Amino acid sequence: MAENEPKKSNYSTIWFYVASASTPSTDIEMSVGGEATAADCTQQPIPWAGSIVGMSLQVEAACGAGTAAVYPTINGVTAASSLVIEATTNPQYTAAAWRRGLYPFTQNQRIGAQYTTTGTWTAAQSIVAAVFVHVEEN
C-alpha cells in the first residue's frame, strides 16, 4: 500500500427494521432496510466470507414496560448474542461489539435479524437494528 493510500475498510452495516413490533412474539424476522412491508425481504446475502462483529438497536420511544430482544441470524438461525431493550437499563438504545471470527459466516450466506418481545412490551413500537459485519479480503 502506498504511503498516502487510504486503508480499506472491511466493515459493512446491514440495516433491519420492524415498523410495529407485535407483542408477545417469538423469533419474528425483521425486514432489510428500505423494504415497503415487514415481510418483503428479511435476509441479505453477503458475497464474501466474514463474521458478525456487532449490532446496535434503537426504538422510536423509550420503553416503559416489557422487553424486546433482537439477535442477528445467519441463514435464518440465531448466530450471536441478543441485545435487549427494556425500561431500566436500555430503554431506547443499546449496542454491542464482538471479536472478529466469533460469529463467522461463509461466502453467500444470508445475514438477518429477528426479535422476540414479552407480553408487556409496548405494542406498535418500531425497532431499527444495525448488524455490523467484517468481510475477508479476496
Task: Write up what this structure looks like.
By secondary structure, this protein is an all-beta fold. The chain has one domain: Sandwich (Jelly Rolls). It is built from no helices and twelve strands. It has strands at residues 11-18, 25-29, 31-32, 43-45, 50-59, 67-74, 77-78, 83-86, 93-97, 103-105, 110-117, 127-135. A hairpin with a 2-residue loop joins strand 6 and strand 7.
Apparent shape: globular
Query: What value does the average pLDDT take?
Result: 88
- Broad structural category: mainly beta
How far apart the termini lie comes to 16 Å
- Counting structural domains, the number is 1
Summarize the entry for a quick read.
By secondary structure, this protein is mostly beta strands. It contains no helices and 12 strands.
